[in-house]
Specification:
mainly alpha
Length: 196
């Protein structure tokens, strides 16, 4: 399996249990690295703080852990550093810079220093942009891979993948069981079942 296939499969978080064994193994290894001590090689401290704030807004802490609790930003850092090519990485970092530029223009503050309402406005703007881009691609029959994925869809996908491949996301949120229920191969058949 090549890297592009793996990234495409990551986008399909809901079908993760159906993913090939090699991908699940790679995700487990990535999760183990994230859970261990990690130094940032792609993101600077400001980008890290911005991304943490955005990720927590996408998957906030409620009665289940939030994106920050499961190390979503550390996972994104790992994917940017180890898996993404320079073009994808640049597109992601440029998009992150655009978030701060937009907040400066609208609210005279960086994204992290804005109020939660202002941050919500920025995320809504990003969501609207993402929807417009998807509509344009659909209308013009452009495959998303032809242009390359833009920042916000990439960031959302990575955040959700990080969350749902974590133990907390898989068990608390998806209620995923590796071996669900019980198998009783030697159960006696009742008289009523045999007559059917």
């Amino acid at each position: 399996m090549n890297r592009r296939e793996a990234i495409r499969l990551l986008a399909a978080g809901a079908t993760l249990p159906l993913a090939p064994g090699k991908l699940l193994h790679a995700l487990r290894e990535a999760r183990a690295l994230v859970d261990g001590q990690m130094t940032f090689r792609t993101l600077n401290p400001h980008q890290n703080a911005t991304l943490k704030t955005m990720a927590e807004m996408i998957v906030p802490k409620t009665d289940t852990p939030g994106a920050t609790d499961v190390g979503a930003v550390e996972f994104i850092e790992l994917m940017l550093t180890e898996w993404y090519d320079e073009g994808e990485k640049k597109r992601f970092l440029d998009g992150l810079s655009e978030v701060d530029a937009r907040s400066q223009t609208l609210f005279s503050n960086g994204f992290v220093d804005c109020t939660s309402t202002q941050q919500g406005e920025i995320l809504n703007w990003l969501g609207d942009k993402m929807t417009e881009e998807a509509d344009r691609q659909r209308e013009q029959s452009i495959a998303p891979s032809d242009e390359g994925e833009s920042f916000y869809p990439m960031m959302r996908r990575l955040t959700l993948t990080a969350y749902y491949t974590s133990e907390a996301g898989a068990t608390d949120e998806l209620h995923f069981e590796i071996i669900p229920g019980r198998y009783d191969g030697c159960a006696a058949q009742s008289a009523n079942e045999g007559e059917k």
